[in-house]
Predict the 3D structure of the following.
Amino acid sequence: MSRHSASAERPVAAHVEYDVDLTTANSLALPCRAERLIRCRSLQELRAARHYACAEQLPITLLGGGSNSLCPPTIEGLVVKIEAPLSGAGGRCYSELTQGADSRSVIIEVAAGVNWAQLVAETVAAGLAGLENLALIPGTVGAAPIQNIGAYGVELADVLHSVDFYDWHSDQLLSLSVQECQLGYRDSRFKGELAGQGAVLSVRLTLQRERADTRYQTSYPALATALRKAGENAPSAASIARAVCAIRRSKLPEPATEPNAGSFFKNPVVAQEQFARLLQRYPAIPHYPSAIDGCVKIAAAWLIEQCGLKGYRSGAVATHARQPLVLVNVGGADLAALLTFAEQIAEAVKQKFAIALEREPQPPTAFVWSQSEAPSAV
Ligand SMILES: Cc1cc2nc3c(=O)[nH]c(=O)nc-3n(C[C@H](O)[C@H](O)[C@H](O)COP(=O)(O)OP(=O)(O)OC[C@H]3O[C@@H](n4cnc5c(N)ncnc54)[C@H](O)[C@@H]3O)c2cc1C
């Protein structure tokens, strides 16, 4: 872990908004208001927000695109909303740190507020491979390491180089290597020991310049089938991204019309012995290898469907008719209603399969000042 000096920075004043409606700023459309909100695009703006929150002793809650957050009716204290920088480097949303067109791998740097799907589209169009399987995932770049986003056989851990993390407590900018981020299946150090402790300011990724011998990840069954059907014998980053986008559009509801947070539960990971018993009883159970030795990952969507809960609705919440792992706010549900519904689903799966489902989206963790960080400590 390395620390950056910030001596050359000019201080900026924080622009505070009061009583801000965040219902349209979270993809589940949960009614939510922020008592106070500051939008941040740079380290200076984060520092100004910290200075303000510390002086007022306000807890700080971070929000990016709001596509993986369970927002309560009121967020007390200060919400810091990470937004995209006003202009990208050379018209692009990322900058290349590795120079020379002949170098095979390229390290790029991206600001936290950049839209992830835009980053994938731009890197793919520039002939850089590595992000194509992660096309169309909503949200910001800065939130990608928080749950180690993943899809179609690739996860952020496969390409992450390092992260710049601004620590609220110490007012320091830390550079964390991919190992120091401790990425796991929809998990990271930012969800554990560092939860709520600071903001990812920028992310560096290692991508590959596409060449005739570039290797792609195409083994995920739905992707392999789509590429075969499209007659793609020699796939490229662009053709893989196209196939992934088509699969996602056909399977996943669009939050703008059917508010949701993507997969609501993680695919449960069970011990090999428990899996063997399940397989005997349910030979068709969809399963995947797990990174944990002696364990197998099971498709949570299948478990929910087997409980007869595909397309099930109770009050203002439903499981989606095509993808039961996605919970949809069908109109007017708040966080309490959503959590009650989710508990019903998890309980049904537990009763039938003796498997505990774990939620993927979480309420954002707030940073709270300690006694020693009274205003004089700013
Ligand atoms: C339709 C749909 C499909 C999805 N598909 C996938 C998928 O295929 N794979 C997948 O992995 N996920 C998927 N997701 C979940 C979501 O897109 C990702 O988790 C995404 O990374 C969330 O980004 P965000 O900016 O919206 O995060 P937010 O919801 O704003 O924040 C999520 C968490 O990260 C914290 N956070 C946000 N920004 C920062 C920052 N800069 N620094 C520190 N902490 C921060 C927040 O405090 C919060 O705790 C999907 C969601 C939807 C709605």
